[in-house]
Design brief:
By secondary structure, the protein is of the alpha/beta class. Helix content is 45%, strand content 11%. A five-stranded parallel β-sheet has the order 3-2-1-4-5, sandwiched between helices. The radius of gyration is 17 Å and the shape is globular. The mean pLDDT is 91.
């Protein structure tokens, strides 16, 4: 029986790192990218290019533009500016898209049910993130239980990056010998610029800070990553 996984895939650093980490461990990997009317269409194009480059045979782009009608965010509205990293302030940032991960993980779970996949993989992370409540481990575990109950289907929502900091996420890319791919070909920037991005938004700030920490402490960070990977068995 083939081991199958479904990856929620945006073409950003985190989801692409999850993809390269999953490919050696599954017989079949399906990528799902969601078109939710996001601010920058380049995200979808980059995701398609990366999955093809990495040899993914099944990549679906699903229309979820209904989310754009409901979720008001600077990532879904051109008239709401993307804040600079230094101006994020208190409370949820305007880049938070309410309900996005609830919807995406639910739809990915339905797709997994249909193709007989036992795992849904997402790149959410609680250690280094922008304060989004739907990136917390508690949320993922709760939703996992809900979709299992709702479909009467054994499914694991896997979060390989949940307890890694950004430096360790870069180390994971290096561990799989794909550091340059993640560094230059992924798109994490809230302003839609591939690679190092605009250098001003929160996503670019976290990405650059993590990369600098990894490059300055490469051996220590790789050792820390390996300890965490080994602790998972």
């Amino acid at each position: 029986m083939n081991k199958k996984a479904v990856i929620v895939f945006s073409g950003g650093q985190d989801s692409t790192t999850c993809l390269i980490h999953a490919l050696p461990n599954y017989d079949e990997v399906h990528c799902i990218t969601f078109d939710y009317g996001q601010r920058h269409r380049a995200e979808i194009e980059v995701a398609q290019q990366l999955s093809a480059k990495l040899g993914v045979t099944v990549h679906k782009v699903l229309d979820t533009t209904l989310l754009n009608e409901l979720a008001i965010s600077s990532l879904t509205r051109d008239n709401i500016p993307v804040p600079a990293a230094a101006s994020s302030g208190e409370g949820l940032p305007t880049t938070f898209v309410p309900g996005r991960n609830i919807l995406f993980l639910t739809l990915a779970s339905i797709y997994a049910y249909q193709v007989g996949a036992e795992t849904v993989i997402t790149g959410v992370c609680e250690t280094d993130f922008s304060g989004y409540p739907d990136c917390r481990n508690e949320f993922v575990q709760s939703l996992n239980k809900a979709v299992e109950l709702g479909m009467d289907y054994k499914l694991r929502i896997e979060t390989p990056l949940m307890w890694l900091n950004k430096a360790e996420t870069w180390a994971l890319a290096d561990y799989h010998k794909q550091l340059d791919l993640i560094r230059y070909d992924t798109l994490s920037c809230y302003n839609g610029i591939t690679g190092s991005g605009c250098t001003r938004c929160d996503a670019c700030n976290l990405r650059a800070k993590g990369l600098n920490e990894f490059l300055e402490n490469k051996i220590e960070t790789l050792n820390s990553l390996k300890e965490k990977l080994n602790s998972k068995g």
